[in-house]
Amino acid sequence: MEGGWPTVGGFLLCLTVSLLLQGRANTFTINCSGFDQHGVDPNVFQSVFNKKDFRPVINFSIPTRINISFTLSAILEVDAQLQLLTSFLWLKLVWDNPFISWNPEECEGISKISVATKNLWLPDIFITEFMDVDKTPKGLKAFISNEGRIRYKKPMKVVSICNLNIFYFPFDQQNCTLTFSSFLYTVEYISLGMEKEVWEITDTSQDIIQTHGEWELLGINKATPKKSVGTNLYDQIIFYVAIRRRPKLYIMNLLVPSSFLVTIDALSFYLPAGSQNRAPFKITLLLGYNVFLLMMNDLLPASGTPLISVYFALCLSLMVLSLLETIFISYLLHLATTQPPPMPRWLHFLLLHCTSPRTCCPAVPQKGNTGLDHLPGVKEPMELVGKLPGPRETELNGCPGSTRAQQEDKAQKQHLVSLWVQFSHMMDTLLFCLYLLFLATSIVTVIILWNT
Ligand SMILES: *[C@@H]1O[C@H](CO)[C@@H](O)[C@H](O)[C@H]1NC(C)=O
Ligand SMILES: *[C@@H]1O[C@H](CO)[C@@H](O)[C@H](O)[C@H]1NC(C)=O
Ligand SMILES: *[C@@H]1O[C@H](CO)[C@@H](O)[C@H](O)[C@H]1NC(C)=O
Ligand SMILES: *[C@@H]1O[C@H](CO)[C@@H](O)[C@H](O)[C@H]1NC(C)=O
């Protein structure tokens, strides 16, 4: 029994094959004798052409299998504002027409001929994301093989909607979908398959895309979930096209100049705080940065808030902050040299502790004594301001008796001025350090965000 199975199976197989072959031989639908001498006789195809309005099937409960492949030949544009990806692809559809068959042996070995597609039934395979009118050229041809397999290729400029995320611009990757599906035919009528493996599609596409434009094709993936609309179930193939932006242009035109300007801004802290140059210099930088932003606005995506805009805003605010700092220090210095207010005790103390090196600690109290003398409390400012014109008045009066007090006052004032100047410089250094810290933190944060 066990030994008998293969023979029985083999016999059955042979029988089936021979029956099929016989059946096949009887059902050549095209009589192609004379094709080589007289060309194709249109009459022999007429019976097929006449049925082009209907799906070519013998048994209507068997769905037509349509195999799909495509070659992405260019990525033309990615529009972040309209969320559109414009690409160019060659779509290839393959299906069988059971009403076409001929015997190549009878036909001088002709195994495929091309036929105008207007004479054939074409499956209505569309890209769901397609957002433009179909501009498929007229008068395309399709190849028909002697077994009735039809190979139809068409070029398509695909404007497809794609969920673009430009947060990471200009280091962004996009994952766009191209969903091939039939509008009309549900799974009972049309089933979709792959004509090529998806890695082959990726490889050929990557070879074909010659241009080194802004976008680079990373890879193509596919998924084949069925789509249900109401009670109908449609077959579909979803291709995920992953593309990456080449950031060189943006690095050269946006990031480098902007970093230069910020660096100069940071370095301009080394201009002496007392000099009149620092503020105008910073204002000029700020102006330059604004002009730069205006000019480079075209390069930025028109919608959304990419990280780079945040980065620019940070740079701008750093520049504004540094300008404010300069104004503040200038004000402090001006105040210190013209009308020094009395220094609060804690500030004085802090100043002494911060500026004097630890080794010359004994000198600190000595130095401090003179300063602390006239600083019994913070409540004194009015008193001091009142006192200041005092000596001047006496000087004007030319009273020689007050010379000593006047000199003491002067020395005290000078000391106060020097203290305030010292304090201003300290503030300048401190704020510069804070500025650098903020700059470093924000740059590191932005870089980390870009790398994730
Ligand atoms: C094919 O057509 C030719 C005439 O064009 C005819 O002589 C021949 O018998 C036909 N062959 C078949 C198998 O019908
Ligand atoms: C059509 O196909 C279905 C399913 O394969 C089968 O049950 C049915 O008998 C076929 N009908 C004919 C007319 O061949
Ligand atoms: C489609 O592809 C499958 C395998 O992937 C193959 O079995 C089938 O014959 C193909 N059909 C057509 C019409 O090319
Ligand atoms: C694109 O997105 C799909 C699903 O959203 C995912 O399966 C696929 O892996 C993604 N492709 C890439 C390259 O990220």
Automatic annotation (TrEMBL):
Keyword terms of this UniProt record: Cell membrane, Ion channel, Ion transport, Ligand-gated ion channel, Membrane, Postsynaptic cell membrane, Receptor, Signal, Synapse, Transmembrane, Transmembrane helix, Transport
Keyword Magnesium: no
Keyword Nucleus: no
Record-annotated Neurotransmitter-gated ion-channel transmembrane domain positions: 254-367
Chief localization: membrane
Subcellular location: Postsynaptic cell membrane
InterPro entries attached to this UniProt entry: LGIC_TM_5-HT3 (IPR049944), Neur_chan_lig-bd (IPR006202), Neur_chan_lig-bd_sf (IPR036734), Neur_channel (IPR006201), Neuro-gated_channel_TM_sf (IPR036719), Neuro_actylchol_rec (IPR038050), Neurotrans-gated_channel_TM (IPR006029), Neurotransmitter_ion_chnl_CS (IPR018000)
SUPFAM superfamilies: Neurotransmitter-gated ion-channel transmembrane pore, Nicotinic receptor ligand binding domain-like
UniProt domain Neurotransmitter-gated ion-channel ligand-binding: residue ranges: 51-247
Assigned protein family: Belongs to the ligand-gated ion channel (TC 1.A.9) family.
Protein name: Uncharacterized protein
Organism of derivation: Rangifer tarandus platyrhynchus (Svalbard reindeer)
